[in-house]
Amino acid sequence: MRSTMQDVPLSIADLVRYGTTVHGRARVVTWTGDAANPRRSTLAEVGARAARLAHALRGLGVTGDQRVATFQWNNQEHLEAYFAVPAMGAVLHTLNIRLHPDQVVYIADHAEDHVVIVDASLLPLFAPILPRLRTVRHVVVSGGGPADLGALAAEGVAVHSYEELLAGRPDTFDWPAGDERDAAAMCYTSGTTGAPKGVAYSHRSIYLHSMQVCMTDGKALSQGDTALAVVPMFHAMSWGLPYAALMVGASLLLPDRFLQPGPLADMIQAERPTIAAAVPTIWQGVLQELEAAPRDVSSLHRVVVGGMACPPSLMRRFEELYGIPVLHAWGMTETSPLGSIARPPADSEGEERWAYRLSQGRLPASVHGRLIGADGRPVPHDGSGVGELEVRGPWITGAYHRDDAPERFHDGWLRTGDVGTLTPDGFLRLTDRAKDVIKSGGEWISSVELENQVMSHPAVAEAAVVAVPDPTWDERPLVAVILKDGAVAEAAELRAFLAGRVPRWQLPEYWTFVDEVPKTSVGKFDKKVLRTRHAEGGLKVAEVRG
Amino acid sequence: MRSTMQDVPLSIADLVRYGTTVHGRARVVTWTGDAANPRRSTLAEVGARAARLAHALRGLGVTGDQRVATFQWNNQEHLEAYFAVPAMGAVLHTLNIRLHPDQVVYIADHAEDHVVIVDASLLPLFAPILPRLRTVRHVVVSGGGPADLGALAAEGVAVHSYEELLAGRPDTFDWPAGDERDAAAMCYTSGTTGAPKGVAYSHRSIYLHSMQVCMTDGKALSQGDTALAVVPMFHAMSWGLPYAALMVGASLLLPDRFLQPGPLADMIQAERPTIAAAVPTIWQGVLQELEAAPRDVSSLHRVVVGGMACPPSLMRRFEELYGIPVLHAWGMTETSPLGSIARPPADSEGEERWAYRLSQGRLPASVHGRLIGADGRPVPHDGSGVGELEVRGPWITGAYHRDDAPERFHDGWLRTGDVGTLTPDGFLRLTDRAKDVIKSGGEWISSVELENQVMSHPAVAEAAVVAVPDPTWDERPLVAVILKDGAVAEAAELRAFLAGRVPRWQLPEYWTFVDEVPKTSVGKFDKKVLRTRHAEGGLKVAEVRG
Ligand SMILES: Nc1ncnc2c1ncn2[C@@H]1O[C@H](COP(=O)(O)O)[C@@H](O)[C@H]1O
Predict the structure, then answer these.
(1) Chain-wide mean pLDDT for chain A?
(2) Which residue is catalytic, options A77, A180, A334, A451?
(3) Which of A183, A202, A221 corresponds to the end of one domain?
(4) In A70, A516, B89, B301, which residue has its Cα 20 to 30 A from B133's Cα atom?
(5) Which residue, judged by its Cα, is nearest atom 13 of ligand 1?
(6) Is the CA virtual torsion B366, B372, B378, B380 positive or negative?
(7) Which residue is closest in CA terms to ligand 1's atom 3?
(8) Which domain holds residue A123?
(9) Cβ-based contacts of A198 with chain B (< 8 Å)
(10) Using one digit for the tens of pLDDT, what is the confidence trace for B353-391?
C-alpha cells in the first residue's frame, strides 16, 4: 500500500531557500588576521551572492551537472560556492589544496572539472597546475587584483575575477528541484591505497547527514550556535557543518588561511564560537598556545575532534583546564563523514564514562555497522572481538566515482579499513587502521594504543607508532616521539613509563626522537612517510630492551 | 550525474533492529495506577515481544500490507504493535478509542482492517462495535481473562488472547527491507469536515520525522531522556515520540488509562520523566492538581504542548512555579504531526522572547510554509499579513487514503485550514481555524485571541469563543466561560477586563457561563458542539454592551 505522503525530494536547493531567508540574520564571519576587522556577512547576504554566482556560472556553461571545483580556504566565497553549485543542479568538487600537484591534476581530470574557483592567495600553488588540467575551461579568481589574473594562463582557459563576474547579477535565483539521488558534491580521498578515489554525495545524503549533525545525540547543532569550522571545507565537506548550519540557522566562523594556533585562539576569543571542529593535532597546538598566552575560550560549549584517534590527554586537558567537553567522532570521506560520536550513556559515571568518551563513539541509527574478522566471518559485538568495521547507510558511499573498487565493498557494505571492536550498546573502539596494525609474533599490537600511552608522558608532545620489520617477531613497533619544548626524556625512561600500562610483550624496543611527525594533507599522522623514512635509513633509532 | 551513495531505504525495520539492540537497556514503563508497581520493561524486551507478535500475525494471514488496527491505551502492548506491524511490512492502523462507534465502524471499514488488537479494559466499548465491522477477521485481546474473550463474538471473526498468541514464538524476526515510500502506519482525522479521512505515513516520512523530533531545535529527544507520552498513541502517532525514542534510545513512560491529573502527577514524581507531551487541557488539570497536592516534578526539562493554542497563563505558570519551560508546537495528523515548534531565537530577550515562545513556533527546513489570503493570492511573510497556512514537505500528506479530497490541496501543498501570520524569520502565529474565525462587519476577529485574554482573568478556568449570527455585523463572538472552583465573576466585569486588551470593536457582547466546555476526542475545545447547543437554545446567554 502506498503512503499518502507528499513526494518532496530532499534537496540543497530547499536548504538554501530556507536557510538564507528564515535564518538570514545568522552570521558568517571570515577571519582576516586582524581581530578588529574580520569580514562580516550573513546567511541572507551569502544567499544573495550565491544567486549571483549561479547566474554567472550559467554564463560559463554550467547548465547541467558540470563539476565546479573549488581551490579555496574556509571562507565566505567558498561557502557561496557550497550554496550555489549544488542548488543550481551542478556538482561542487572541493579540491584539496594540500595534495601534491600531480594528485590535484589527476583528481581534477578524473572528475572532469569544468570551472575552478581559486583563492588569489593560492595562485602560487595553482598557477603551475593549471596548464596541466585537461577539462577546465574557466578559472575564477576570488580576491586579489588584476596582476593575479594576468599571472594565470593556459590554452583554452578563460580567467575571470570572481567579483567582476558577480557584479550586476540578480540577487535571487530560481533554485531548481532535482532528483534527490543525483550528485550534489564530490570529494576525493587519498586515504585509500592506489589512486585517489572520488566520493559523490547526493542531495539526499547531504540532507540526511545535516539532520544527524543537528540531532541532540549528534553534534547538536542549533540556531543558537556559532560554529568554528577549522576542518577544511575540502575535507569531507568540513564535517558537514556548512550545510547543517544552513538547515538550522547556526552562525559560521571561517578561519580562511589563519590556521595557526595563535590566530585560532584569537578568533575564539573575539568571535565567541560555541562549537569548534578540528583534528587533534590542531587542538594540541591550540592548547599549547593557550598555555603560553591565555585567551578567553569560555564561549565553547564543546569541541569536536575526529579524523584520527583523540589522545586522552587532549580530552582531559580541555576539560580540566577550560571545562570544555571534547566530543570524539569517527568518520571518513566515504561516510559523509559522521560515522559515530562519543556521547556516553546518560547513566555512565567516572572512569566508565571516560572510557565511553575516549572510544570512537556510538553509531547512530542511520549508520549500520558490523565487524568482519581476519577469516572473513562476522565478529560478535561484545566489546572484545576484533574485526574490520564495515558500514552501511544512506550517507555511506557504495562505490567510487568511475571506479567501482569492488575490493572496498562487501555485499553492499563499505569496508572501512578500520579495525576495532563494537560493544553491545553500539560503541566503536578502533584499535588501528587495517594497514597500521603491528603484527608481532602472530598477535596484533595497536599502534594507536601505544601512541596514546606515550603521549600521556608529561615530556611528550606527540608520538606516532609504526611497524618495522623484525627478524624474530616479524614486526615490532617503532615509536617516533616529539618532546615538548625544553623537555628532556630518554627512550629508556619512556619505555619504563609504559611498563605496567601496556602488556609486557608490547613494550617497544625501537625509539626515535624527531622534530615533527609528518602529517597528511588533512593533518593526520602520515605513517607512510615515517615508514619510508625509516626504510631509507633517515631516522636515528635507539634500541632499548629489558 | 548519479551520486556514489548507497541506496539504503529509510525503514522502521532498521529502527527496530537498531533501537531494540544498541539501546536495548532503555526503559519502557507502563503505569498501573500503583506507584510502587508500574510494569517495567526495556526496548530489548519490547523488541523480542514485537518479534513474537510479528510471527503470530503472519499466522493470522498478515503476509503483506494488511492493516493491523489497534484499539489501545498508551501501553507496552501498543508499543509492541508499533514496532512489529510496520517492521514486518504491514500497516499499523491506530483506531481512536474516543470516537463515536459509528465513526469507528466507518474508519475500520474504510481502512479495511484485517486484525484488531484491543485492550481488555476497552472491551465494553469495542464489543458492540465488532459485529458491525466488515473486514476484520481476527481480534486479539491484550490483558484480561477468558471471560473477556468469551464476551466477544461476531460471524467469521476469530478471537485470540494476546499472550497466548505470543507464547512460544521466536524472540527474533527477520524484519524485511521494503520501499521507503510504502505505507507504514495510518491515522484517521475527524478534524476535517465530512467523513473522517485517513493519512498513511510512509517509512520514509516516519524516519525523517523522527530525526526532526531528535534535533536540538526540534524536541531535542536524546538517549538521556525519559519521555512521558500523554498524547495518545492513536493521535498522530503520539506526536512521534515512540519512533523517535527507538531512534535514539530514549526511555518511555506510558500512562495506560491513567490520564487523570492525579495519576499523571504521581507518575511524574515516581518515574522522573525529562520530557512530557500533552494538549494544554491536560496540563491545566495537572497544574491544578499540583497546586492542591504538590508533587516533585523537577525531573522535567521541558513540557511539549500542542494540538491547540497554548494559553499564555499555562506557559507562565509552568515556568514561574516549577521552572519548567513549555515548548509550544503546532501540527496536524496530516503533518506527522511536527509542523513547527516555538524555540525563540537565541538572541531574543524579555517580552519579545515570550512572544516568540507563545507563537506556534518556527517551521523547520523540512516544512515549507506559505500563506494564501482570502482572495487566493500569496500573503507576504511579514508578521502581519493574514492568510491560510499551506505546507509542503516530506512528512506532509499529499492526499487522503482512497479519498483525493482535492479541495484540501493546492498545487501539491496541503491546505491546513489554519489561519495566521508568518514572520520573516519563519515563526507562525495562528489566529484561528479557518472555520472558527469570526467575521464581524467584514473584519476577522480571532476566537483564540479572545479566549486567551479571557483566560488570563484570575477567576476564569477555561474559555471558548465561537461565532454567533448577528443582525448588524453578520457574526459576533460568544464567550463560553468556566469559572474556577469557588470563583465569581459577572459578564460585565469580564468584558471590562478585556477593554484595553483587545480592540474596542472586538469586545464580545454575548457571554455564557458553563460547567464544562465540550471537548473533542483528543481534548480540544469542540466548537461544533458549542455552536449547535447555542443554535438549539441550549445555552443561557447574557448580553452586555457599552
Ligand atoms: N576518531 C577517529 N579515531 C581513529 N581514527 C579515525 C577517527 N576519525 C577518522 N579516523 C581515520 O580517518 C580515516 C578517514 O580518513 P578521511 O577520509 O581522510 O577523513 C578513517 O578511516 C580512520 O582511519
Answers:
(1) 94
(2) A334
(3) A202
(4) B89
(5) A332
(6) negative
(7) A309
(8) 1-23+43-202
(9) 4
(10) 999 999 999 999 999 999 998 778 999 999 999 999 999
